[in-house]
Amino acid sequence: MIFRSPYPPVDVPRATLHDFVLGGAAARGDAPALIDGTTGRVLTFAQLVDQTRRLAAGLHRRGIRQGDVVALWSPNSPEYAVVFHAVSRLGAILTTVNPTYTVEELAFQLKDAGACLIFTTAALLDKARAAVADAGRAIEIITIDTVDGVSSFAETLVDAEPPTVTINPDRDLVVLPYSSGTTGLPKGVMLTHRNLVANLLQIDAMEPAELRALLGVLPFFHIYGMVVIMNHGLLRGAKVVTLPRFDLETVLRMIQDHQIALAHVVPPVVIAFAKHPAIDRFNLSSLRWLFSGAAPLGCEITGTVETRLSIKVRQGYGMTEASPVTHYTPAGGERAGKVGLLAPSTELRIVDPATGVDLGEGEAGEVWVRGPQVMQGYLNNPEATALTVDAEGWLHTGDIGIVDAEGYLEIVDRLKELIKVKAFQVAPAELEAVLLKHPKIADAAVFGVPDDDCGEVPKAIVVMREPLTGEEVMAFVELHVAHYKRLRYVAFAEAIPKSPSGKILRRVLVAAERAAAKS
Predict the structure, then answer these.
(1) What is the H or E stretch that residue 414 is in?
(2) Model-level pTM?
(3) Cβ pair 65, 90 in contact under 8 A
(4) What mean pLDDT is reported for the chain?
(5) What is the CATH number of domain 419-518?
(6) How confident is the model at residue 183 (pLDDT cuts 50, 70, 90)?
(7) Phi and psi of 467, rounded to 5°?
(8) Fold of 1-16+193-389
């Protein structure tokens, strides 16, 4: 059984991403496009177009050509959008990197993506230099701010027209974000101009609300912030207020001062809005909706925050491999606990994971989706691609969902092994690989356990070669991974449960954890 969207199909033009998003920007002139929320600095639509042109010309002069990969390792700022669209205009590919990454994690992505240049900031420069050295390839570094002795964003701008590049939107990649998919280590997700243009059209068709200002606190390196906030906001002519990191009082001040009606957030932020006393010190009368994505949000918290603020909570669903949106809740169509309706031009199947048989309304099975927003595959990884997108184009999400009689999807469980920490993906295999580097650890398994603040957090089961403490294990892992991947709990065992083929039986560990929590 195939479920289809209630919306008319979208007609995806043969347009490049930068032309599609910024095509009407020059006509908006001095209207603010991006505002630095920490300083108040404004980048108008006219300045955005001009700086994108000049940066593209400057990057071409430095040797960036069509198909080259440029990395962007930075917190949110107005310049993020300039770099993004300058790289797109040259027909090059942008790989966006989590600014909390360690040197080791950054070096892996630079090497795997084949980056030849990286944009970063003064605060991250030393780590960027170390990662470039570890990557073992020639990678030029440009800082978005100014640092003595290092090429800067401002110095790279050239007042010239960049070359005209012939781009095939159906085939040519524009971004290469990294995702762990349904399992395993982070992989480059190959997204074309058409993938992102299609998804922006799909979002636009489901978002009737007038968008004057959007909150840009969710990181732009992540597909949610990149597409749903930054690019959709610019497409609609909204001002996007950027913040480099989440701070509740700063977020509340931005909503108050910029009269934000629709704020894109993730579940931990919704919880803060529901419970934190700071909420009462700000005038949030402009706020009409919180839009929550990246992880499911329960009915209880939804009801609490709606009552407290006299607003509505809307949800969406998707994944990096789908650019990201496959489901979206329109204004006026809110359903507590549901992640929305199918996007236009998107199909859905609910499949029994044990038998492969299609299921119907009200039945729980794996969510499969198909549409023009689905990725081309994982970079240099045909095996992982084949496991995730089948020959008929169905993206196997690894999530368990139920479709109700109205067509709304509810996510009820997860097949995939990923741990969702504040909406960020943590791959157990990545942490297990770090643990096995420790000379006193013979074997290890990692899985997610529930957490009130983060949704889930990683827990490790460790088999020792020699005595060591849980604190020592956590401190060792902390040296190698971004903060959200750090272990929160460690337990020791004589052996790790595994299948005859040697695969870790994580569901056995999860079941034991749940049983212990109930006892």
Answers:
(1) strand 409-414
(2) 0.87
(3) yes
(4) 94
(5) 3.30.300.30
(6) low
(7) -60, 140
(8) Rossmann fold (3.40.50)
